[in-house]
Amino acid sequence: MRRRQAQIGFSQRIRLEWFEHTARLVMTGDDKTKINDSLQNRLRKRVSVGGASVRGNREKIITILLNTWLTVPPDRKKLRDEGLQIFQRLSPQDRIAVHWGMVLAVYPFWGSVAAHTGRLLRLQGTAAAAHVQRRIREQYGERETVSRAVRRVLRSFIDWEVLNETKAKGVYENGQQYPVEDPGLIAWMVEASLYSHANGSAAIRDLLASPSMFPFRLAHVSSRRLASLSPRLELLPPGFDDDLAMLRREGPTRR
Hints:
255 residues; mainly alpha; Arc Repressor Mutant, subunit A; 3-stranded antiparallel β-sheet; 53% helix
């Protein structure tokens, strides 16, 4: 998991509607080839128009979409499957929580940008792109690829309408906020958030109030209740509201 933490992975500006389309394709049971073809057709007139590069932006976007909802890491397949079940019972507006959770679980870089953005919003009411850039470069290194990826993740936040631009260039404020009351969805989001932690563990109260979840307002649910709703969450020790939660180790699974 630590090696994954050092990778950028999420380096493109990706609209929420494209994740929505991908999740729906996965639920139909189509294979990777059919899903890839559908995404190519959908994005051909929107990204890398006229481009012939083997690994252009469109192909990179599709890779991220597939990695998030189809070709997920083996230890995240059960999380994905449960996420798709939750997806089907939510209203279109509320499905953003499931997409956010899956991206968070598969791409810790997204979580790092979200955490620094959310922390600044909480402290100051606004988040300057320059401040987010500085903190991420301290974590991932002084590379242009890092700076470019941060810009694109922030633009994705704006596209998803969870960040709004202000009159000051490069300064953002909170956008749409989503209250989450469903204990089952909260337990799933807590589990997803744990995958973005290097050691796969954190205090429940910190997860519920994590700045990486800045677009959401998670209702308080007791640690025992959350653990009862997710067989993959383990509490150490049990019985307290500030229990340490960790991901239960499981054997390898087959697709």
